[in-house]
Amino acid sequence: MTYDSMDFDCVFRSAKASDYDELRQFIETAWMELYSPHVSKRSVERFQSEDGAGQHLRLYLATFEVAVVGGSIVGSVNTSGHCITALFVRERYRYNGIGSSLLHNAEICGGRYLEVPTFNAPAVSFYERRGWVRGYTTEEESFGTTIGSLVMMKVSGG
Questions:
Q1: Phi, psi of 83 (to 5 degrees)
Q2: Distance (Å, rounded) from C-alpha 48 to C-alpha 41?
Q3: pLDDT digits 0-9 by tens, 37-49
Q4: Choosing a second label site near 99 at 20 to 30 A (CA), which of 26, 89, 138, 154?
Q5: Where exactly are the structural domains of the chain?
Q6: The architecture CATH gives domain 5-111
Q7: What pairs with residue 115 in β-bridges?
Q8: Is residue 117 within 8 Å of residue 38, measured between CB atoms?
Q9: Number of C-alpha atoms within 13 angstroms, CB side, residue 95?
């Protein structure tokens, strides 16, 4: 189920230290939704036992932006230097412009490239519709499983 954009107010803001627990759970849920069907069971176990979401958040909390509806985090994005990571919107809030707004804000903060798993065709399409272009493919290691990764770039004027 998705919500019509007129049904709720969404606030975009920088993440705060007090968001840590909720944002860590949000990132874990996002990773499980996106990666668990494509990596080994052992990789999923490693992600959980090594607190992969917490690792990422401890490194980047200060550069995260969140989308909040009714006091709950429904979207996130991180911009570190020129790299955008962790763009994700809860399924029930997709198709309401939240992802586009988070991406736009990340671009304003200097985001010019990102990596998306090659298996995530909907994300590739989302970025392309917003003027991002495919750069090159590479491989990344995700808790013991090697996956294909597409580097995408935002070109000026796109």
A1: -100, 135
A2: 11
A3: 999 999 999 999 9
A4: 138
A5: 5-111
A6: 3-Layer(aba) Sandwich (3.40)
A7: 151
A8: yes
A9: 7
Taking Cα atoms as reference points, which of 101, 29, 112, 116 lies closest to residue 65?
101
Considering just the CA atoms, what is the radius of gyration of the chain in Å?
15
E strand residue ranges, 21-131: 64-69, 72-80, 83-89, 113-117
68 strand-pairing partners: 11, 73
- Please give the Cα distance from 10 to 4 (Å, whole number): 12
Tokens for 54?
Answer: 């917490």
How far is 75 from 89, CA to CA, in rounded Å? 4
Q: Which helix (H) or strand (E) holds 67?
A: strand 64-69
- Return the H-helix or E-strand segment holding 59: helix 52-60
Q: Please, which residues have CB within 8 angstroms of residue 91's CB and are 6 or more apart in sequence?
A: 2, 33
- pTM for the structure as a whole: 0.91
Which segments of the chain have a pLDDT < 70? 1-6, 157-158
21 — alpha (psi -120 to 50), left (phi > 0) or beta? alpha
